[in-house]
């Protein structure tokens, strides 16, 4: 075999080796590319379905809030009307602001800023609406210069409106976590973009929406979904990748890179999800989203049965259910979240009952404080200015403290004195359930004792603790402090406590915990009784 033949054979062997090496790689590359296209299509379809559901749900909720405003009977922009607007805005967390405008589109009032007579809304006029439905609902997209100082989506009808953040339509819908991808929400009646994810081109979204649909979804870098019940459409686009990026990710780094990246992402996602779905993560998220509501349990005069005030009871509104405080307060105290929750409770009380307390100074609301706020002046420094702004008297907010709050006795003693000097009565809650209740009466100057429900329950029963309530009442009379009995459920309990000298009580015999509106009606009935 001459040199030429040997060279040709060598070349043929090299070609065969290269083909043998590259063929599986090429086949793998084709399969990998096809698999990537299918995965991308599935991913886009999932995001598109979720985005459309979110858009329909948000539009439905905003329409519901708008409908509630239409049922308000008070005169537009009157104090009762503004109060109802604020209640609706608080109830519907998607609503940023609510208000009224005249037939010329001029703003008249806002739940955030009040009436136009204050001068805050002067010069604000609605432009012609971007969309109008058959039943008279109008929408404006991307309005600036609204109360709140942010771009807003506004829905209005018959002279009243609600405003929301348009980013709510696409919040948490970033496809594949890549900012190069995008989600856009479109009003199909007027071909107007309502909202997009950051870095998404609205003009490109419209162009995709107006283009003819592709023959196959697998080959398309975008997905369009149209609502069957609303004039809405969703456009979801895949992240743009250069040829170099695609070659770098496919196929030779596929296995090792995919396994390594998969393990890393799985570990990070598992950590993030476990942390987010843990009780601590959910509670932190609830604090950030202001998911706490307040129920008011009336406190009555046992002699006249007239309402004198209420105890504010915090509740966690988690999705569609209410979480009781004993399920989350210990965790909040342990994780340092309790002070933020207390501040939200105060804000809610003043928002819901501020006008009521200002009008009826004989009523009060008691607030439960934890140890951190009974050993420092932090809450007192928050409480004073808040009451001054609302015009509520200090005596109308009373403080309840449990024995757990007195672990640092010296600090608690000084703070309790500061609360009392500021005009806030201080009550010792759940009295008798701790080991050192009697010593606390000697250490701290307080205004009242709250008899724990466990002692009230034994009244009239053959139990060792059945006479504890009467002893507490006698002790309180000696110390010249008030007594409030908790958990009264039977008439015989109320009669027994009143006969022994207890003046006030609360419990299901008189009323279950009420919403603010229910409590105001309850107090009104008691005044008229």
UniProtKB/TrEMBL annotation:
<feature type="transmembrane region" description="Helical">
    <location>
        <begin position="252"/>
        <end position="274"/>
    </location>
</feature>
<keyword id="KW-0378">Hydrolase</keyword>
<keyword id="KW-0973">c-di-GMP</keyword>
<keyword id="KW-0472">Membrane</keyword>
<keyword id="KW-1133">Transmembrane helix</keyword>
<dbReference type="GO" id="GO:0005886">
    <property type="term" value="C:plasma membrane"/>
</dbReference>
<keyword id="KW-1003">Cell membrane</keyword>
<dbReference type="InterPro" id="IPR001633">
    <property type="entry name" value="EAL_dom"/>
</dbReference>
<dbReference type="Pfam" id="PF00563">
    <property type="entry name" value="EAL"/>
</dbReference>
<protein>
    <recommendedName>
        <fullName>cyclic-guanylate-specific phosphodiesterase</fullName>
        <ecNumber>3.1.4.52</ecNumber>
    </recommendedName>
</protein>
<dbReference type="InterPro" id="IPR024744">
    <property type="entry name" value="CSS-motif_dom"/>
</dbReference>
<dbReference type="InterPro" id="IPR050706">
    <property type="entry name" value="Cyclic-di-GMP_PDE-like"/>
</dbReference>
<keyword id="KW-0812">Transmembrane</keyword>
<dbReference type="Pfam" id="PF12792">
    <property type="entry name" value="CSS-motif"/>
</dbReference>
<dbReference type="GO" id="GO:0071111">
    <property type="term" value="F:cyclic-guanylate-specific phosphodiesterase activity"/>
</dbReference>
<dbReference type="InterPro" id="IPR035919">
    <property type="entry name" value="EAL_sf"/>
</dbReference>
<feature type="domain" description="EAL">
    <location>
        <begin position="276"/>
        <end position="527"/>
    </location>
</feature>
């Amino acid at each position: 075999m001459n040199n030429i033949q040997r060279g040709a054979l060598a070349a043929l062997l090299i070609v065969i080796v290269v083909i043998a090496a590259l063929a599986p790689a090429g086949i793998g590359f084709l399969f990998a590319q096809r698999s990537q296209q299918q995965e991308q299509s599935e991913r886009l379809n999932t995001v598109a379905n979720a985005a459309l559901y979110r858009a329909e749900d948000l539009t439905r909720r905003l329409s519901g809030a708008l409908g509630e405003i239409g049922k308000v009977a008070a005169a537009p922009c009157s104090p009762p009307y503004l109060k109802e607007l604020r209640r609706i805005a608080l109830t519907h967390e998607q609503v940023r602001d609510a208000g009224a405008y005249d037939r010329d589109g001029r703003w008249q009032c806002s739940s955030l800023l009040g009436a136009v007579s204050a001068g805050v809304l002067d010069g604000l006029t609605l432009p012609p609406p971007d969309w109008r439905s058959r039943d008279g609902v109008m929408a404006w997209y991307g309005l600036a210069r609204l109360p709140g100082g942010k771009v807003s989506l506004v829905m209005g009808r018959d002279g009243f409106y609600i405003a929301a953040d348009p980013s709510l339509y696409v919040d948490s819908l970033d496809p594949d976590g890549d900012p190069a991808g995008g989600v856009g929400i479109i009003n199909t009646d007027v071909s107007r973009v309502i909202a997009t994810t950051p870095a998404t081109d609205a003009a490109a979204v419209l162009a995709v929406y107006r283009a003819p649909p592709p023959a196959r979804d697998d080959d398309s870098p975008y997905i369009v979904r149209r609502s069957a019940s609303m004039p809405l459409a969703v456009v979801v686009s895949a992240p743009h990748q250069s040829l170099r990026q695609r070659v770098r990710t496919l196929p030779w780094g596929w296995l090792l890179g995919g396994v390594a990246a998969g393990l890393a992402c799985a570990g990070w996602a598992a950590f993030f999800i476990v942390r987010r779905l843990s009780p601590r993560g959910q509670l932190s998220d609830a604090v950030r989203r202001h998911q706490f509501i307040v129920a008011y349990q009336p406190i009555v005069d046992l002699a006249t049965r007239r309402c004198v005030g209420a105890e504010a009871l915090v509740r966690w509104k988690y999705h569609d259910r209410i979480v009781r405080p004993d399920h989350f307060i210990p965790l909040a105290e342990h994780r340092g979240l309790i002070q933020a929750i207390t501040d939200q409770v105060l804000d809610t009380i003043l928002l819901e009952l501020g006008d009521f307390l200002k009008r009826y100074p004989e009523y009060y609301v008691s607030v439960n404080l934890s140890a951190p706020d009974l050993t420092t002046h932090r809450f007192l420094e928050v409480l004073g200015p808040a009451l001054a702004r609302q015009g509520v008297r200090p005596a109308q907010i009373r403080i309840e403290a449990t024995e757990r709050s007195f672990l640092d006795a010296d600090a608690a003693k000084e703070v309790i004195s500061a609360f009392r000097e500021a005009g806030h009565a201080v009550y010792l809650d759940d009295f008798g359930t701790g080991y050192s209740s009697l010593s606390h009466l000697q250490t701290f100057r307080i205004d009242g004792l709250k008899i724990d429900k466990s002692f009230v329950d034994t009244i009239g029963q053959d139990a060792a603790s059945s006479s504890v309530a009467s002893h507490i009442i006698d002790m309180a009379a000696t110390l010249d402090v008030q007594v409030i009995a908790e958990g009264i459920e039977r008439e015989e309990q109320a009669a027994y406590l009143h006969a022994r000298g207890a003046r006030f009580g609360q419990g299901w015999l008189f009323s279950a915990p009420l919403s603010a509106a229910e409590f105001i009606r309850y107090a009104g009935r008691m005044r008229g009784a």
